[in-house]
Amino acid sequence: KQEVTQIPAALSVPEGENLVLNCSFTDSAIYNLQWFRQDPGKGLTSLLLIQSSQREQTSGRLNASLDKSSGRSTLYIAASQPGDSATYLCAVRTSGTYKYIFGTGTRLKVLA
Amino acid sequence: EAQVTQNPRYLITVTGKKLTVTCSQNMNHEYMSWYRQDPGLGLRQIYYSMNVEVTDKGDVPEGYKVSRKEKRNFPLILESPSPNQTSLYFCASSPRWGGYISYEQYFGPGTRLTVT
Fold first, then answer.
1. What does the alpha-carbon distance between residue B40 and residue B59 come to, in Å, rounded to a whole number?
2. Which residue of A has its CA nearest to B90?
């Protein structure tokens, strides 16, 4: 059964730092992996979607990489800003299914 | 504006009183899904639908029903709610899927349900 883990659960950094969030999954047979952002009391906003055939995706200051063989994805945030403070979630769609499995998220706080 | 809407946003009810949470999307998406989010457990998928009249169970379907009679709507039904269904519920939709290719999921704002 697919399990998705995100470490650390919480992270606090000063403004301007480059940082990496991690997402691990136990079954490497996936169709895709999606990173989301969730602000307190709000829904989820899609950040990046990586198909299984891709190694990385970029959007602005965000870069997500995917290493299926090792069961890992990283979300790199460059030059962090207080507005980046939120919970970041990853979700995978395992091959042969139409279901998504989510990690429990990393709560990020960027200090001004 | 392209969006997923949910109603109500907040609901307090009593054990056993049937309720329906509505979900609607205006993007002509084929895939729709319901999740619940609980502290320490993250988001767990309840049900999903690949198209009209096509639904299937997610990881936590017990106590819930869904229907997909129209493409834009995917209501979540709790026939006899219990306190362990107190949670934050999200509806999501995604464009047409083609085999192993899937697209971004778009989420609604959430419905906070409390069952006493």
1. 16
2. A43
